[in-house]
């Protein structure tokens, strides 16, 4: 089986991809993932700002804790979305799965914007809210793997990190868009008006964004790796079974890499900092609008560092880029709460900006890293399920854990300790993996791809 180097202008299957095709793929993955994560983060932002009062008010002091718990509930269903998307993505293609996840996420988000509150329909309100959040989780579980593979499998070998960063920047772009729209609505509908109707508008805007995402994604060609698998009739019959039979330990280690990033990232994307800094009964009591703008500003820093990390990983490798990222993330974790606790919006922005530099460097290379870990025939299942498990272990209940730690200790030092622990866990998992930057991704190289990247193991 040939393992000759792939020319820089070729896709992983050896076919020449036009500049126009590659640009279209990059644009489509950025737009699609931005729309998906806008929908996902709008919920997290609303959970920190209004859902406790509107849907869980009878729980009193525990309303915010339960509101954050509903953010985490969706993560428990991400593996279901990942299993379904992985199975159908490895059998029927990346593109069809991406179209379906986009519709599911958009429909669930828009319906949340139409939900009556607890005061109107009682216990049915939080139940319906949780059900729609579950649908968001199923969609998010299937979205990321498909977007990543569309980007990386279209990329030249020497630019996978840069191409793979395109779906990754959809996360900070989604956070920027979600925080920006929420901040604008806080200005248009201040005070009680925001509670009455202002928070609903960002959810309903999802309908427009989904139409844009659908239009862009339908114009993209199927991944060349999957197209070749289909042509050769080499698609795995039961990709998930093969994944866990041969690569279970790899899935776990890859999940821990993401968990180290995700737990820290959900301090903002999960709405925790927004709630901690604006809660009128809390230690800071800052105004909602300026805090949302500070979060939006930090999302710009996150976007730039994520994009930079993708390019850097093409130069020095995924593993080395990650190690730099973990060190930067530790710096951000140690400086976050001392700056936030000054009570200054400017210092809050600075704390988040420092944090997001490290977050970008531990997120930007992830698409390329994951794609290079798994064989072509089960790659969609491998990257999707690793990502979903990592999200559960990392971000699922990070805001709730942080809230509980502050309630139990009366300060944020324990939260810092928790985030340091998760960062070190991600670093250890990264060090367990060999760097496979540039490994051929096409179906001709399944034997090479199946050799375990875990140190100490020769075969998966």
From TrEMBL:
PROSITE patterns: MFS, SUGAR_TRANSPORT_1. The gene is yhjE_3. The chain crosses the membrane at residues 40-58, 64-84, 96-115, 173-191, 197-216, 247-267, 291-311, 323-340, 346-364, 385-406, 412-433. This is Putative proline/betaine transporter. GO terms for molecular function: symporter activity. May be a proton symporter involved in the uptake of osmolytes such as proline and glycine betaine. It is found in: Cell membrane. Residues 25-438 form the Major facilitator superfamily (MFS) profile domain. It is a multi-pass membrane protein. Keywords: Cell membrane, Membrane, Symport, Transmembrane, Transmembrane helix, Transport. It comes from the Bacteria. GO terms for cellular component: plasma membrane. Its main location: membrane. CDD domains: MFS_ShiA_like. Belongs to the major facilitator superfamily. Metabolite:H+ Symporter (MHS) family (TC 2.A.1.6) family. Gene3D superfamilies: MFS general substrate transporter like domains (1.20.1250.20). PANTHER family: SHIKIMATE TRANSPORTER. It comes from Microbacterium terrae.
